[in-house]
Amino acid sequence: RSSDLDEYNYIRISELTIHYTPARDFATCILPPEENGKKGLFLSSLPQEKYHKKMKDCGIVAILSILERPIVYPEYFKHKQLILEDDEGASIFPCFEEAYEFISHHRTEGHVFVHCLAGISRSVTVVIAYLMKEYNWPLDKAYAHVLQRRKFIRPNGGFLKELKNWEEYLANQK
Questions:
Q1: Residues classed as catalytic
Q2: Which 8-state DSSP code applies to residue 155?
Q3: Which of 120, 135, 150, 163 is most open to solvent, judged by the fewest CB atoms within 10 Å of its CB?
């Protein structure tokens, strides 16, 4: 399965190069399309406007942005904005359910692209929370899954604590 994912990364992501910062200049395929019809899930930094058309051409239909300020995307994308600072005191937990619903719904229509400014902390935290709920994974498995695919992740300490709370919350929902 890992080689399938790598092949998918290189084929599709090579079309979707996003230049933002050195060593963080590409979108990462966290989940390739699944046999059940769900499409892929991508994680990245803030994409430059000149790449929006390429993103659309690659099958991205929805974008989830987790940023401090509002951002606007072309109307051909479904877009959800979560306003949140990358600060250990910021509470990301209230975003988890809303992000889960958005990602789940739009993966049935096409690929979903999740980003924050650098693609290291906020977006990573939200994607980990999504994986925990979608696949009933514990925090360590979801974190390892993302880390295996995107080597430069670093959710801040406050967000990690909230992911542990999310893990407990999900366990109590069973």
A1: 116
A2: -
A3: 135
